[in-house]
Design brief:
Largest sheet: 9 strands, mixed
Radius of gyration: 24 Å
Helix content: 25-40%
Strand order of the largest sheet: 7-6-8-9-14-13-12-10-11
Number of strands: 14
CATH superfamily of the largest domain: Class I glutamine amidotransferase (GATase) domain
CATH topology of the largest domain: Rossmann fold
Shape: globular
Distance between the termini: 66 Å
Structural class: alpha/beta
Strand content: 15-25%
CATH architecture of the largest domain: 3-Layer(aba) Sandwich
Order of helices and strands: HEHEEHEHEEHEHEHHHEHHEHEEEEH
Number of helices: 13
Length: about 425
């Protein structure tokens, strides 16, 4: 009888010693059944003031969360794989990560960033990959557009996304292929009405004012993430400040003579020495984009993420967390960036080895940061106008979409000064 009591006491003591204190969301390829929603769980935990850490380069960039019944329940509801850890097990992982011999780091996530998505209020004939993945991951965001930006409402947010945009006032240069399409006619009219309402004579002038407000947001400490044509058209608009680069079908008068010689590359974020495309019917802004220059067959179209020191360079390490270093390529109006036109102070984080193009770049501007990601939709190789929206339930482990969510979650990290 006494031995049974002793055995029961031992079992109770053991149960207390292995009491769960942490929940691990593994992010490796074989264990996590929904990588994308794991980011949403992590955001949800930070927003609810639970302790959370990002384990850089540990099992694909896993998340270590405090243990609570509602966290476990939320993981089960959203279909996110998780592992329950004791204090001892969590400490063992953290000790492994802290070892100087391991290219790993534990980064504390302490504040859920306020997210804004720059998007027009009317329906677009294409989808927005970031809006799709934010919605799928259940990360809250606020749609804003020109009126809100010009009214200085960017001050309310930490993170801003730009997607398939044209800040040059050339309506995406769809003139050659879609000038008779009802959606193009409507969009052009809506843009002109909005510009007039906001006190501008031309759409190009109004879009430049928006671009400059976004520039100031970044310089002041904001984080901007851009994809597809928002990347190069944003830089072109800033570099062409005070220069009319629009032909008459876009703004009612001819472009400025010799405008190429008047471009000020010092104003742009990422690109230098680019040559603008003068043809109004050509679906291209400049020679920054590699879409028409690349000779990469679809079956070989991949790009490689660069490897950084997690302890010394945590920022690019966070932005490149994934369960694979090889990412399936995808096209867009702006698919990739000509490497020779990227400024030397901009960090290249992903390249296509077949032709040396850059797909994924990052830089600092003032107190803030920006990331440019080429292509339109990571799970739709050649997304065309009018194509159906990508269903992310079919791609819950998409490494291309993970890069977007890395950027969304990155501002939540406790800030450390970058050492290189």
């Amino acid at each position: 009888m006494v031995s049974k009591k002793i055995l029961l006491l031992v079992l109770i003591l053991i149960s207390f010693s292995v009491k769960a204190s942490f929940v691990l969301l593994p992010m490796d390829e074989t264990t996590q059944q929904n990588h994308l929603k794991a980011y949403g769980i992590t955001y949800w935990c930070i927003d609810k003031k639970y302790k959370a850490s990002w384990l850089l380069n540990y099992r694909g960039g896993s998340f270590l969360l405090a243990d609570a019944p509602e966290i476990r329940k939320e993981c089960q509801i959203r279909g996110v794989s998780f592992e329950v850890l004791s204090d001892a097990e969590a400490n063992q992982i953290l000790e492994e990560i802290a070892s100087p011999s391991q290219n790993m780091e534990a980064v504390v996530l302490e504040k859920a960033p306020k997210v804004a998505v720059y998007t027009p209020k009317g329906k677009q004939p294409w989808d927005d990959a970031v809006t799709l993945v934010l919605t799928y991951a259940e990360i809250p965001f606020t749609p804003i557009y020109d009126e809100e930006v010009l009214a200085d409402q960017l001050l309310l947010y930490d993170w801003l996304h730009l997607h398939h945009e044209d800040f040059t006032g050339q309506y995406g240069k769809f003139f050659g292929s879609n000038r008779n399409s009802p959606w193009y006619i409507d969009q052009k009219k809506d843009a002109e009405v909005l510009a007039t309402k906001l006190g501008y004579k031309k759409v190009s002038e109004e879009k430049l004012a928006v671009a400059k407000k976004i520039r100031d947001f970044v310089i002041g400490g904001g984080f901007m993430f851009a994809m597809c044509s928002a990347t190069d058209s944003f830089d072109i608009a800033l570099a062409a400040d005070g220069v009319d680069i629009c032909e008459s079908m876009f703004d009612g008068d001819a472009s400025e003579a010799n405008y190429q010689s008047k471009i000020n590359y010092a104003n742009s974020f990422a690109f230098k020495n680019f040559v603008l495309d003068r043809k109004p019917e050509h679906y291209e802004f400049s020679d920054i984009d590699m879409t028409e220059k690349r000779m990469v067959p679809m079956e070989k179209d991949y790009f490689t993420l660069m490897e950084f020191s997690a302890k010394w360079d945590p920022i690019p390490s966070m932005l490149c967390q994934n369960h694979t270093q090889l990412i399936k390529g995808f096209m867009g109006q702006t698919t990739a960036f000509e490497q020779t036109l990227i400024k030397s102070n901009v960090l290249v984080m992903g390249t296509c080895e077949l032709n040396g193009e850059s797909r994924y770049i990052h830089g600092e501007k003032g107190k803030g940061m920006f990331t440019f990601y080429g292509g339109h939709d990571p799970e739709d190789y050649q997304h065309r106008v009018g194509d159906p929206v990508t269903v992310l339930d079919l791609h819950p482990n998409s490494p291309g979409y993970r890069l977007i969510l890395n950027n969304v979650l990155f501002p939540a990290a406790r800030k450390k000064k970058q050492k290189t």
